[in-house]
Amino acid sequence: MTAAAETVTGTPGSTAGAETAETSAEAAPPSFAPSPERAAEYLRRGWWRRETFLDDLRRQARLRPRKLAVAARRIGESRTDTLDYAELARLTDRFAVALLELGVRRGDFIAVQLPNRWETVPLLFAAIRIGAVTCPIDPVCQEEELRHRLELTGARVVVTVPEWNGYPLAAHLTALKADLPLEHVAVVGGRSPGTLSFEDHFVHTPWEEGRTGDLDGLELTPDEPFVVLFTSGTTGLPKGVLHSQNTVHAAVRGYADTFLLDDGLVAAVTTPLVHYSGFGQGVLTGVMVGGTVAFQDLRRNDALLDLVERYGATLVYGPPSTLADIVRAQRAEPRDVSTLRHAITGSAPVLQDLVDDVRETLGARTYSVWGMSEFGPVTITRLDYDADRAAYSNGGPIDAMELRVDHPDDPTVRAAVGRLRVRGAAQSLGYHKRADAFAAELDADGWFDTGDLARTDGRGGVRILGRARDALLRDGAVVPMTELEAIVSRHPDVAETALVGTTGRHDDPILAVVVPSGPARPDLDGILAHLRAAGQEERFLPERLVLVDALPKTLTGKVRKAELRRRHGGQ
User: Fold this and answer.
1) Model pTM?
2) Whole-number Å distance between alpha carbons of 173 and 171
3) Please, where are the H alpha helices in 48-84?
């Protein structure tokens, strides 16, 4: 048995009195707020603070007004839009008054359904300025899932694009207005009946001239809800995770401190700005430390190297598949990537081949991050780990978080392999209008059940093995599903794969569901040989193989394994 990780202390920051801690505790939903003593500790350590991300922006606009804050590439139009800190601060005020003009009031929700465009950034800060809560939505979210998000939040304004991948987003949102509290659809780069031109109302009208007084007294405090993020919804309708600025600050402060980020940061972000990793580790971290954040509107990983070269990126963030694409692109058409130091990845296991490829081709070191919408980044492989650690571990907890691994059948017993539970200052405020569902994941001491199985790494950290509900056992050992999937996906004839049991029992045969990468059709013998060559144990190898054209996924890209079992388990 392995003991649970001890509380990890962070770099001390600003101090605050107990009265501020009590205010922080009262602002969150009472059942999920930390005790006044714990809240005071969060403040003392600098994980929580009295300031906000809007204060960070104002500070950067004062200290470095002409420094590049945002570089947003529009690939289809062959242009890059840029904002320095002074421009970003000015547009924040302009957009804030523009929202007031649309009837948005303190406590209202606004939805932002945009690809990675510069407009998302000042909108996020403008919402803080007027006391509104932002609901980021991926453009791929359509039909009933889009309706669910708007219905749950009661968003009064949506900012979107005319269409995405051929789907008429603006027209669909306009049609929803009759059934929802939605009042305005503002369209970036176009217009359709019943909508507003975003450029006319937000960009070209200097609302901030003589009107900033209208904003007085509206700003969100550090502990009020400021953003709602939706879970993947693999087992039902997605839940809306509410965060305050302090719960997000605890996570991104830990992220920034781990990598010693400062105003020299130039981050090339590949993940959507409407996801935690994009706006949190990307935009908010960049503004907090006074760095630069670069991104592009289409997922063209080969083109990302242009941003790295042009702006001297020091850090690139993206899932392992994205980093692999970047490596291939660099080998095919080398760019100057000499400024890169950190390649940070998450959402899937990192393999040694990728660590080696990133080091040899990009000259950067790979770090693994694991997190979830309810907390943001929780674990990271740190600077003082050995250079290959990301291939074997998801790292230890950031300073503001604790973790422990429990025996699968007894949460009072710690284990080397078991169910991962976490707690700390980055914990969200709960699920919007679903307090019962959030409470069900917490024990009496505030430990949150992540739903993941993990293996301790011997250094206070963990390696994620997969979702507990999808777990398979062999001789009492947990099959490392996510690692096996990552290895199979590196087979030359495989585009992606998922491993599942056939019925949902722990002793099920292992079924490999594979999407071929081309005309070649991989067979089971070839897959098994590939896994054996990677050193995988015989008892963990799949017994069946099914080839499919695509894997069923949620909007956030997670595979619907229950659907795979239903379709292929009985074959």
Assistant:
1) 0.88
2) 5
3) 53-63
